[in-house]
Write a structure and sequence with these properties.
The complex is a heterodimer of chains A (241) and B (136).
Chain A: H1 4-26, H2 34-57, H3 62-90, H4 97-121, H5 131-158, H6 164-189, H7 201-219, H8 234-240
Helix pairs in contact in A: 1-2, 1-7, 2-3, 3-4, 3-5, 5-6, 6-7
Chain B: H1 2-30, H2 36-42, H3 54-63, H4 71-91, H5 98-135
The chains are: A mainly alpha (241), B mainly alpha (136).
């Protein structure tokens, strides 16, 4: 059963998710960031649902595992929608909206079908015993997020994107995905480290994204701009020159 | 094999994203000139602030009462500075060329801390001035 720390982290991340929704909807221009706000709202609702299920059925029940992994897959689909919107904003001036939407629909469809088939195929095995499968599944899903965000970041640098808000939203997303993909890969590589150390990282990382987005919506005005060249690391600066 | 590859790529991507994210915070203070008051306090007459001054500056920042909500920025930059120090200690023997870049980044962190200190001192002085005026 979850301990006190699990509950504390859960409550903190829930409050941050709600604050991110409020800041996103109330920051000017109003409702421009409705999709990121919708994603955060979904995350908060899913979190409550998972906790209710956990309390009702227990951590080792089939019900809990189904709810957890189906909702996680749905949450990832919602996150991909946010990434697609970010792509659309970046490529707005290049009139590439139609191609982005087409590529995004294919990606969403494939991810949705893949997630459903994988979980359905492992229907009888979803329990604590099959934790290895679950870790591998999450690792792959988050890695797709890393790749998409990295490509987006590369495009932003290439197109000399200056909007500070967009830059911070994308970079926060990149930190979130790369940390989770790395942690799940480590859990996959070293299953013995699961309980003492690595189990604690994903909940802490879940705090990061609503915290960073709340900060961006609350503190960075829409009209803030910065020079993209100043954000390059030495490796990227070398390639750019 | 795939897990190891994903792990390495994710760590590299994380480093890129983290450095760039912290830079979005540092850039906001990059062009701000330090006041003579802070220069005198830190003990530098002219020229840029030293990377090694960061710890001392941060202590001074914490001595002043908070101005706006700058705590999150200061914490993020503090974490970045510590990561840079760790990277410098562990990478210097392997990649000596990176040392100069790391030193430059740490210097930016010190400049950020000096600007934060400057703002907090100005804020404290304005509060003090207002209290004096109200007392009269």
């Amino acid at each position: 059963m979850p301990g006190l720390l699990d509950y504390v982290i859960g409550v903190v991340s829930f409050l941050l998710e709600i604050s991110a929704v409020v800041f996103a909807l109330y920051s000017k221009p109003r409702f421009r960031y409705a999709l990121p706000a919708f994603y955060m709202l979904c995350t908060a609702v899913v979190q409550v649902g998972v906790w209710v299920c956990l309390e009702k059925y227990g951590v080792s029940s089939q019900e809990y595992f189904y709810v957890y992994y189906y909702t996680e897959s749905l949450q990832m689909l919602a996150m991909f929608l946010v990434i697609i919107q970010l792509y659309e904003w970046i490529f707005l001036e290049m009139s590439m909206g139609r191609y982005i939407r087409m590529a995004a629909s294919i990606l969403l469809g494939v991810t949705g079908i893949f997630s459903f088939l994988v979980i359905n195929h492992n229907r009888g095995q979803l329990s604590l015993k099959s934790i290895q499968f679950v870790v591998e599944f999450d690792q792959n899903i988050y890695f797709v997020g890393v790749v998409l965000t990295y490509l987006l970041w590369g495009a932003m640098l290439k197109l000399r994107e200056t909007r500070t808000r967009l830059v911070q939203l994308v970079l926060a997303l990149g930190i979130y995905f790369s940390t989770l993909a790395g942690i799940y890969a480590l859990r996959n590589l070293f299953p013995a480290m699961e309980d003492p150390v690595l189990r604690w990282f994903p909940p802490f990382v879940a705090i990061w994204l609503p915290l960073a987005w709340s900060y961006t919506f609350a503190r960075i005005p829409e009209e803030a701009r910065q020079e993209p060249k100043q954000l390059l690391t030495p490796a990227l600066a070398g390639k750019a020159s | 094999m795939i897990a190891a590859l994903i792990c390495v790529v994710s760590i590299m991507a994380f480093a890129h994203f983290f450095v760039s994210y912290t830079r979005t915070i540092l850039v906001s203070t990059g062009g701000i000139e330090l006041s003579p008051r802070v220069r005198e306090l830190v003990g530098i007459a002219d020229g840029p602030i030293s990377a090694a001054d960061f710890g001392r500056l941060l202590q001074l920042v914490h001595l002043c009462s908070e101005t706006r909500d700058d705590r999150a920025d200061i914490r993020a930059v503090g974490a970045y500075y510590n990561a840079l120090r760790f990277a410098d200690a562990s990478l210097r023997p392997i990649v000596p060329r990176i040392s100069a870049w790391l030193e430059n980044e740490r210097q930016r962190c010190s400049h950020f801390a000096a600007v934060a200190l400057d703002r907090r001192i100005a804020h404290n002085l304005s509060i003090y001035g207002r209290q004096i005026a109200e007392g009269l």
